[in-house]
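All the exercises in this workshop are built on plain-text protein records. The record below serves as our worked example for the rest of this section.
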Amino acid sequence: ATVQDEDGRYVGGLSREDFRIIEDGEERNIEIFETSSDLSSSLGVLIDNSGSSASSLGSIKSGVEAFAGRLALEDEVFVMSFAIETEVVHDMNEDVSRLPGALRLLRSWGTSVFYDALFSGIRKTREGSHERKALIVLSDGNDNRSQTSYLEVVEAAQSNMVLLYFVGIGPRILIDTYNMEGLASMTGGRVQLLGRDQPVAVALE
C-alpha cells in the first residue's frame, strides 16, 4: 500500500495499527505487516534514450549507476532502454559491476515507444524472485509509435502487482504528466519531476 494525505503528499512511518482491512463488509485480521525497507525487491529501470533525451542522457546514466550501486545484495535489478525499440542493457543475473560499461554505450536517437517499453518492462519484472516488484521509468512520458495502449499497460501492471515510479525529465510543458500521474496512481507508484539541469541521482536516492 502507498498512502497519500489530502494534499497528495506521501505518508511514511505507518504501523499495523494505522490500517484496517474490510472485506465484504467484515473486518479482517492483518496477518502480515512489513514495511518496504524490510522487503527485498525485483526492480526494473527504463531509460528513455529517444531523441528528446539528448540533453539529459548523461545525467540519467550517472544516476542509474549510482542507484544500482546502493541496492542491497538481495535486490534484483535490470535496466532497459527504449527509443524506436526496447533493449535490455543489463539483466538481473548479471554482475552490477558491468552496468557502467553497458550504460556508456547508450546513445540518444529516434522516437519513443513509451507504452511498449512499459509493457515489456512489466513482463520482465515478473521474472524477479521477490514479491515486491517495481519499475522506475526515466522519461518525458511522450509516446510516438507504440503498439501497446495505455489501458494495456495499466492492466499488465495491476495484474502483476508492479509499482510504476516515474521521473519526468525536461521542461514541465514538454513532460506528459497526465499519463505519468495516471499510471502511477493506478499502480501505487509516484511521480517526480526534474528539470534538465537537475541531477537524476537526487531523484533516485
